[in-house]
Amino acid sequence: MRANLIAVCLALPTLAWAVGGDDAAPPKPTPTTTECTGGQIWDADSKTCVAPKDARFDDDTLYDAARELAYAGQYGAAIAALQAMSDPQDDRVLTYLGFAHRKSGDHAAGMAYYRQALARNPDNLLARSYMGQAFVETSDVHLARAELREIRARGGRMTWAWVSLDQAIRSGRGVSY
Prior knowledge:
Elements: H1 2-11, H2 31-34, E1 41-43, E2 48-50, H3 59-71, H4 75-83, H5 91-103, H6 107-120, H7 125-137, H8 141-153, H9 160-171
Antiparallel strand pairs: 1-2
Helix pairs in contact: 3-4, 3-5, 4-5, 5-6, 5-7, 6-7, 7-8, 7-9, 8-9
């Protein structure tokens, strides 16, 4: 099993443990993080920075912007982008809200969002991984291992969610990227 983990890590040399499903590559910086300020998002059509609630953005654009902002450590801006999405109860939105709140220091809010995401979709492996990493951060390793087992039982062995949580358990600290 450890050999498989090592093989996956070696096969992905650019792996940066970035926020996002099984896309382990960090998001490429765009003008959203290189030019925009104050939580604004780059609008390619108008070539300007605009507020996330701007109706021109579809959910995928907002989701990508939230991922990029979170990767850049701009958690408040990531939260604003997520809150502008059309379905605030979508499990991927709840998962990212959990991540952004946890990484910004509000562990309780992060855990509440992870629980909501899992209530909506028990097969959300990313929410399970992030929740497990939060358990590692609070020294509740037995609970983190339970989430690792759940990820595996739900067919997620050797996915980014499983590998990153396994790494967090082995190292004793959550994965930042």
